[in-house]
């Protein structure tokens, strides 16, 4: 039980600390209004809960023990990051200096 509390405390502290998530929620709120900002914050919170959940259930250990599964996940993640990078470079420049954030949404 103490491990669970420790992991949850770390996850909460990491979630509330300013970072890229804060920038994204702030941008959404300023550009699109309060409701999209709230939805973005809820989405980020749910994603963090998923990551904490699979960490607590030991899926990270299972993935680390399966070379094939780890390789597949690494490859899919790499391809996704390449896709985001290509979208970023192909995005049209506009007056908005934060236009590159639109490729993430």
Automatic annotation (TrEMBL):
<keyword id="KW-0472">Membrane</keyword>
<feature type="transmembrane region" description="Helical">
    <location>
        <begin position="6"/>
        <end position="26"/>
    </location>
</feature>
<feature type="transmembrane region" description="Helical">
    <location>
        <begin position="69"/>
        <end position="90"/>
    </location>
</feature>
<keyword id="KW-1133">Transmembrane helix</keyword>
<keyword id="KW-1003">Cell membrane</keyword>
<keyword id="KW-0812">Transmembrane</keyword>
<dbReference type="GO" id="GO:0005886">
    <property type="term" value="C:plasma membrane"/>
</dbReference>
<dbReference type="InterPro" id="IPR001123">
    <property type="entry name" value="LeuE-type"/>
</dbReference>
<feature type="transmembrane region" description="Helical">
    <location>
        <begin position="38"/>
        <end position="63"/>
    </location>
</feature>
<protein>
    <recommendedName>
        <fullName>Lysine transporter LysE</fullName>
    </recommendedName>
</protein>
<dbReference type="GO" id="GO:0015171">
    <property type="term" value="F:amino acid transmembrane transporter activity"/>
</dbReference>
<dbReference type="Pfam" id="PF01810">
    <property type="entry name" value="LysE"/>
</dbReference>
């Amino acid at each position: 039980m103490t491990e669970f509390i420790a992991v949850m405390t770390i996850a909460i502290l990491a979630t509330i600390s300013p970072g890229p998530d804060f920038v994204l929620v702030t941008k959404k709120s300023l550009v699109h209004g309060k409701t999209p900002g709230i939805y973005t914050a809820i989405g980020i919170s749910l994603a963090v809960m998923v990551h904490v959940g699979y960490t607590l259930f030991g899926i990270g250990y299972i993935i680390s023990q399966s070379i094939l599964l780890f390789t597949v996940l690494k490859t899919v993640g790499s391809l996704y990051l390449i896709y985001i990078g290509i979208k970023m470079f192909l995005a049209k420049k506009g007056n908005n200096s934060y236009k590159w954030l639109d490729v993430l949404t």
